[in-house]
From TrEMBL:
It is found in: Membrane; Secreted. Its main location: membrane. GO terms for cellular component: extracellular region; membrane. The keyword Glycoprotein applies. Residues 9-188 form the Reelin domain. It is a multi-pass membrane protein. This is DOMON domain-containing protein frrs1L. The gene is FRRS1_2. Belongs to the FRRS1 family. Belongs to the insect defense protein family. PROSITE patterns: CYTOCHROME_B561, DOMON, REELIN. Its cofactor is heme b.
Length: 681
């Protein structure tokens, strides 16, 4: 009997400790911040509760007195937040006052924006003063979860609507930050002063939430892919009066875990696996409906548009375009043409969403009357991050083409580039990068979308061009310029050895240049204007034109031979200089994402080549013997003094042979190093 009583006593003590532990320290700062749902392992109460929440202006328009009470029952715990009236998933980042029975939590990166209890004593009433964010104008409600006992609690108890009036001091605008809204009052938004909460109040999970957020001072993983967080009061003008909003201390975070419950597609290729996307698209049907698909694009505009060369050499002010587009398209195939396009654009620093259509290889902006079934919800730009959100009805028609996002599948295309903006005229420049889904996408599915990519053609192009110019062309030029004194008594294929090496090197360079040119034209489906492209095109023309001109060179004794020497030297050097310049400018290309070591390897190669040419020039200047130069002088300045070239003794020509072997070995190392930096990206 004693043992039975003792067992019962221990059980009662453990139960009491469990209940006290559940409420004594308040709500957990994590999943409860989003769901306002206690992790007690039981379901909520569905009946009407006796608990009430009253909110009223008592001090001024920015301070509200909030009272939680019950005329008949006590409660042990609670958690309370201010939410946007038009969208209860939006946490308003105001600040609660506290007393000995309450404490304020810093939820989702905000500051004291959530109120909860500090002890497990029974309570009839709690009261707090809530301070709105500075210049915040909107209608809000206060939402609370009340815990009566461990297994009895009510969620989503809301106050009456409270209207916040504008601050009489006015709104201070930041010209570098905009928030644009084109939605009705019941459309979800992420305006300044709010924290997006995908889970709060609308659906619940038993026990631990699968969308847990680990909060710390150094890293915040948001519950949604695009989380607006503010540690300071945010500046906002009302969407009722002005479509432009200004914010400060606004931070966006990408949560790639959202791809477990939405479709995700990103640029550049493979960025979802590496978690370093410049542009990320998410898509999925709106919860509890199969009639509307919600799309979101977030773009790291600062990274996408920065001049990587300026940053690499220590510039503190990278060049960032104020106009750009980040576009997604629904296509019936993998080829551009007759596609429904939505563009998240930055036009002279202002974010917008527009709809367009691909007609062949061109893009046309649609008028408002042409894109039925599309709801534009939010466009925001701040601190180099561009965010757009819109919804499409599952069925819509665009210029005679019918779309059904529930029953049909489509390829998804992503692309971004610069936008030319002139008053009311906008034109997309050729894209910096693009990607298309490998298979047709079902919008009812979730997860990362696999991509069909032709980026291997870019690396194919880079490989052949590096081998052509850094390898073969370098060897061919130095052979013709400095190695004519070698192997005077020997020949190869009926010509002097130096000429055989020069000719074979330049022909190999020409073949590799042609293969590289074909591969890149297959990738871009045409020509894209840019510094790299223009320099590369000049180098290709010179590489093809010089050997053609050499076929028609006059005889050595001809009076016009000097003209050929000048032209051959000039074309060869122009092509080589442009090719090396194109290799430098390739660092800026977003399509290949080269690292800084690649840039430095090109710089070291150039320094090495210039040093070798300078040393050999000095070497020949100190020689005492002369020899008639050979027929072709590609790489040396053709002049009367070059007709006779000074050489050293036989021992010195041995030095040249060893020097040539060393030069070829170092060039081979440079080729392998530069190619490796290209292939590992």
């Amino acid at each position: 009997m004693f043992i039975s009583y003792l067992s019962m006593l221990i059980y009662m003590m453990m139960t009491t400790v469990t209940i006290i532990d559940a409420y004594s320290n308040g709500a957990p700062n994590g999943e409860a911040c989003r769901t306002l749902y206690p992790g007690h392992g039981v379901d909520k109460q569905y009946g009407r509760s006796s608990y009430r929440i009253n909110a009223s202006h008592r001090f001024n328009d920015s301070k509200i007195v909030v009272t939680l009470y019950s005329p008949s029952d006590t409660f042990l715990g609670f958690i309370m937040q201010a939410r946007l009236h038009s969208d209860r998933e939006m946490l308003v980042n105001g600040q609660f006052s506290t007393d000995e029975h309450t404490q304020a939590l810093d939820c989702l990166g905000g500051y004291q924006n959530t109120l909860t209890h500090t002890n497990s004593f029974p309570k009839y009433k709690i009261e707090s003063v809530w301070t709105a964010p500075k210049n915040f104008i909107s209608d809000i409600v206060f939402r609370v979860t009340v815990v009566q006992s461990k297994n009895v609690f009510w969620t989503a108890i809301d106050s009456d609507m409270i209207e916040l009036s504008p601050n009489p001091l006015g709104v201070q605008y930041n010209p570098n930050s905009f928030n644009s809204f084109n939605t009705p009052n019941d459309s979800p938004q992420v305006p300044s002063g709010f924290v997006m909460n995908k889970d709060g109040g609308h659906h619940h999970h038993h026990g631990r939430s699968p969308y847990h957020v680990a909060l710390s001072s150094s890293a915040i993983t948001p519950p949604s892919p695009f989380l607006t967080v503010s540690h300071q009061p945010l500046v906002q003008n009302s969407p009722k009066h002005d479509p432009s909003h200004s914010t400060r201390d606004l931070i966006y975070y990408l949560d790639y875990n959202v791809c477990s419950r939405k479709l995700c597609f990103g640029l550049p290729h493979g960025c979802l696996r590496r978690r370093n996307c410049i542009m990320l698209l998410t898509a999925g049907f709106v919860p509890y409906t199969d009639s509307t698909v919600e799309f979101e694009i977030i773009a790291d505009h600062k990274t996408a548009m920065s001049s990587k060369r300026a940053v690499a050499f220590g510039s503190t002010s990278p060049i960032i375009s104020t106009s750009a587009y980040y576009s997604m398209a629904l296509s019936h195939d993998k080829i551009m043409g007759n596609d429904s396009v939505t563009d998240c654009i930055l036009s002279n620093g202002r974010p917008q969403i527009m709809n367009s259509i691909n007609v062949g290889k061109s893009n046309e902006e649609l008028s408002e009357s042409e894109f039925h079934g599309v709801t534009l919800m939010n466009a925001t730009y701040h601190n180099g991050i561009l965010f757009c959100k819109w919804r499409k009805r599952r069925r819509f028609t665009l210029r005679g083409t019918r779309y059904n996002l529930r029953d049909d599948k489509y390829h998804i295309m992503l692309a971004f580039g610069r936008l030319s903006s002139f008053s009311n005229f906008r034109r997309k420049e050729p894209h910096f990068d693009k990607i298309v889904s490998d298979s047709m996408v079902d919008f009812r599915m979730t997860g990362s979308i696999s991509a069909y990519s032709k980026t291997f053609l870019i690396k194919f192009h880079a490989f052949f061009m590096i081998v052509a110019w850094v390898g073969f062309a370098s060897i061919g030029i130095i052979t013709a310029r400095y190695l004519k004194p070698l192997w005077l008594s020997h020949s190869l294929f009926g010509v002097r050895i130096w000429f055989a090496i020069h000719r074979s090197s330049m022909m190999a360079s020409l073949i590799f240049v042609c293969i590289g040119a074909i591969s890149i034209f297959l990738y871009v489906d045409g020509f894209v204007f840019g510094y790299h492209q223009i320099l590369g095109l000049i180098a290709i023309i010179c590489a093809i034109g010089n050997p053609i001109g050499a076929v028609f060179r006059p005889e050595c004794e001809s009076s016009k031979r000097w003209i050929f020497n000048w032209i051959h030297w000039l074309i060869g050097n122009i092509g080589f200089v442009c090719a090396i310049g194109a290799l430098f400018m390739a660092f800026q290309l977003n399509a290949i994402h080269l690292s800084t070591p690649y840039l430095w390897s090109i710089a070291f190669y150039l320094f090495f080549n210039l040093t070798v040419h300078s040393l050999l020039q000095l070497y020949f200047c100190n020689c005492h013997h002369t020899k008639e130069s050979s027929d072709i002088s590609n790489g040396s300045l053709p002049s009367a003094s070059n007709t006779n070239q000074r050489i050293d003794s036989l021992a010195d020509t041995s030095f040249l042979r060893y020097f040539f072997i060393l030069y070829v070995s170092v060039i081979l190392i440079f080729v392998i190093t530069i190619i490796s930096f290209v292939l590992i990206n």
